[in-house]
Write a structure and sequence with these properties.
Blueprint (H helix, E strand, L loop, with lengths): L4 E4 L6 E4 L17 H29 L16 H22 L3 H20 L5 H15 L6
Antiparallel strand pairs: 1-2
Helix pairs in contact: 1-2, 2-3, 3-4
Length: 151
């Protein structure tokens, strides 16, 4: 909105003229943009969660009604009923974490950092320093560097 405008001063005898009006105020977005690395991590966590939920549920359904579901659908054939239930619950927890990472919630970031750190420490003390170990260290440093994007 450009143009000139006239306003009366307190005394009413002189007029103030503006050459242009200031730009209109636009509210800034409350949530910063989602970093691409966080999007990739949340999608990978979601995929792992879906696989875990499906593996647990298919095993439970195979045990309950073996006539309806063939045993070839078992994604994790070496678990038992309790293991399948725990697998399904952990898969649901991973789906919640992935969704919260996508929404840039701080608790999901710190939960992911704790899990990545714990896994890295476990791999270090068991002597399993492989490419996974290096990738987890890179992921840990990356998540620490993008923590300002979370609210």
């Amino acid at each position: 909105m450009g143009g000139s405008s006239t306003a009366n001063a307190n005394s009413g005898s002189s007029a103030v003229t503006f050459d242009r009006l200031p730009p209109s105020w636009q509210p800034m977005s409350a949530v910063p943009r989602l970093p691409i690395g966080v999007a990739v991590v949340s999608v990978l966590i979601a995929i792992a969660g879906v696989v875990m939920v499906l593996g647990g549920i298919l095993f439970l359904l195979g045990e309950i009604g073996s006539n309806f579901f063939p045993s070839a659908l078992d994604l994790f054939p070496s678990i038992d009923l309790l293991g399948a239930a725990i697998l399904a619950v952990l898969g649901i927890a991973l789906l919640v974490i992935a969704t919260s990472l996508w929404r840039q919630e701080t608790w999901a970031l710190w939960t992911t950092l704790v899990i990545v750190f714990g896994t890295t420490i476990y791999l270090f003390f068991t002597g399993s320093i492989t490419i996974l170990f290096v990738l987890l260290i890179i992921l840990f440093v990356y998540l620490l560097s993008v923590r300002r994007y979370f609210y």
